[in-house]
Fold this sequence. Notes:
Blueprint: H1 10-21, H2 29-70, H3 74-99, H4 101-111, H5 115-141, H6 143-149, H7 154-185, H8 191-214, H9 218-243, H10 258-290, H11 296-333, H12 337-364, H13 377-410, H14 413-438, H15 442-466, H16 470-483
Helix pairs in contact: 2-8, 2-9, 2-11, 2-12, 3-5, 3-7, 3-10, 4-5, 4-7, 4-10, 4-11, 5-7, 5-10, 6-7, 7-9, 8-9, 10-11, 10-14, 10-15, 11-12, 11-13, 11-16, 12-13, 12-16, 13-15, 14-15
Amino acid sequence: MEQPLLETTQDHHESRGEALEALSSSSSLAKRWEVLVMGEMKKVSYIAMPMVVTTVSQYMLRVISMMMIGHLGELSLSGASIATSLTNVTGFSLLFGMSSALETLCGQAYGAERYQMLGIYTYGAIISLLLVCIPISILWIFTEKLLLLIGEDPLISHEAGNYSIWLIPNLFPYAILQLLNRFLLAQSLIYPMLLSSVAAFVFHVLISWMLVFKFDLGSAGAALGIGLSYWLNVILLGIYVKYASSCEKTRISFSKDVFPSIREFFRLGIPSAIMICLEWWSYELVILLSGLLPNAQLETSVLSICFVVSSLYYFIPYSFGAAASTRVSNELGAGHPEAARLAAWVAAFLAVIAGVTASAILFSCRSILGYAFGEEKELVDYVKDMVPLLALSVMMDCLAALFSGVARGVGWQRLGAYVNLGAFFVCGIPMACVLAFVFHWRGKGLWTGLTTASLLQGLMLMMITLFTDWKKQAREARQRTIESRSQLTVE
Length: 491
């Protein structure tokens, strides 16, 4: 079985701290620094590279289903597209955001060698998110009526309402899957996540094709296929967590401390959700605003293409952000402030390199990118004009995603929520509206506003990281895991 990358014995923690303290006094300062930096690069890369495959595999489940629905007809695709956008905003983004609280709680507990707390936090989080799924499910039942209320086409509303109802069973495995991912991520157990995600993706392609086309279930079959694939992923990870020797100390089990941990989870989970949802919602809002532009069909299509492409590229910096979150939270929990600082800046360096490389590849493909989504010359030319701006936004996303990961590792979710509120809704969205509707930059104006928001988000979080008192953060992390505000009684 796979063993965690990070050694967790007390000897390792002591030697790690001593190595960092020796930097200030050793005559071989440069050599020691090089050894530490290279070692940190390996640890960050070990987490980030498999995470790219893991996150893309999980994201592609819904993309594959949308592709299959597209072959059923324009009405089915329109209804599913609207339902997907609405369910993302009101459900999936909320669960994804709240689950990020475990990056702080489990990551710092693991670094502090409070291994039993990982299982307790995760069990409490599962109970919490399953309860959150209930009101979301009720809301989705009334999707058709909500769309009719805002003046949407009745046929499209009916199709979207049906698809949303069939998506309800997906909420519960999705919530559990996100929490299991964070539980394993905190321990640097990446490869079980990678293998289970790839297996679920392969299963999804086969089962969705059968449900949609062989059993003639249409869009309902596509939604059902997503849920079955999520459950398969959950089952595979659940078996690993239950029987793997690498999870022996952190096993998820019920105890009397689970219920107090729920309060601690919500204390970080709510600002985590706000932090992530504000960014997620801003992109959905821009897609809706594009429908108000002249030649709305073309503008909406092009911005949707930009959104799909940027989402796929975003998983690269997001994975480095996840690595930064894990490494920073582990080192703070272990009481190593200098190691946490080093992990943050090494991950930032690697994320910038990845971002520049991704942007260069995207820019070099600007002439052919449009053909992947259609053959109309107007569409292809417009996409070509948007690619330079899109490539720039990919670079900005690298900074934003990376330092958002650092914020989750430290426990700055509340601060991150304020940053995202200011970057996207105080600055980015108003700027996008002015450029698009006042200066008539159309889709370019809308996307420029989003790019500016990402730049501000990244810069603000970077400045916060730059001026952080890491010793203070380490003390707070130790207090959170050992003294524990929720007064857990783990022995």
